[in-house]
Amino acid sequence: MDEAASLALTFVTSAAIGLLVGLERERNPRAKAGLRTFALIAVLGSASALLAQATESGWVLGAALLAIGVAIAGAHLVDQDTRADDFGTTTVVAALLVFALGAINVFGYRLLAVAVGIGMTAMLHFKVELEGAAQRLTPTDIRSILQFGAVSAVILPLLPNQPYGPYGVLNPFHIWLMVVLISGVSLAGYMAWRLTRTSKGLLLTGLLGGLVSSTATTLVYARQVRAATQSAANAQVVILLANGAMLMRVLVIIAIAAPGALWAGACTLLPAALLAVPIGLWRLRQGAVETRGIDEYRNPTNLLTAFIFAAFYASILLVSAWLSDEVGERGVYALAAISGLTDVDAITLSSLRLLATEALNLSAAMTTIGVAVGANLVLKSMIVFIVGGRAIGRDIAIAFLPSFAALAGGLAILHALA
Q1: What is the pLDDT of residues 259-270, one digit of tens each?
Q2: What is the number of other CB atoms lying within 10 angstroms of the CB of residue 109?
Q3: Distance (Å, rounded) from C-alpha 402 to C-alpha 410?
Q4: For 9-34, what is the mean pLDDT?
């Protein structure tokens, strides 16, 4: 593409970004800038960037940006209606950002400018939904978000990224990165549950409960059946969906931590998940009545919990490496059966780490994960039987049987292909 055509495309793209944002602002009759104004602001940003390049002076951009801000803010200040309730701040900031997007478009960041323009338009459009979501957040939710920020953006960058200890498997940065991964997945499920639980009932309670903590979900609903505050049909729906979601959660972890092993993970876990979820949905159609569900989950990003998980993960990693070296794969499988009773995430991540270091081959790593998942489902069946009673315990155990069979079948296929 020659220089003239490239320059024309740049200005057309900037104008399109301005028109998109302006289209959203045009819908608000109190905004002092609309469709045409935002398009012109974006084009002015591109023109100012070209002038700054030609004159080798950043003052051109700064002066133009200041002029835009003063003009839009002044238009709101002279209007008594918009001045009275401080209306218009969002429009002023949006205008400044559109100007900046027009400028960075000239500097070669076209895709970034388009992506940010689309994102900010969506943010402006969903104002009511975003404000409603913010109103529903509790102080605990805010603390969870801040603690995740500390876990991911404060602690992680400070850790050394090099191996320590026997077998060279204890890498502090990598260990804490796994903590960030698990905390992030749990926080995402927790926030989704918090924002949707009041209107969606059993379906989302089960699916999102599996992302936050399938064990907690299983325990709470089994206890509610015993206390007669929840019907057995409702509890079965939530427990089955939560544990189906747990299997999908493990697949997500594999996809993030070891993308090359995703096909093997899907072969092992996806059939089991696909059998668990439909059974839960079938039970829902049999007459389960939607209710609010679990009142509270524990903070998924609690710092003490994060440190405990890091210590547990490091221990599993070290013991797995030792067993693999001294006993072989069978020793790792035994460890998976034991650790899977309490936590599937740690043994999953440690298996993937050993796969990356070639201490385990692909089929052995997936078998380890499969054994841990199977042990976890056995534990859930026992929890329901002991806490919820014999009737629902029997029903859950029978409902888990297809997932067990699919898990065993998937592992058999994987070993046959290896």
Answers
A1: 988 998 888 888
A2: 14
A3: 12
A4: 81
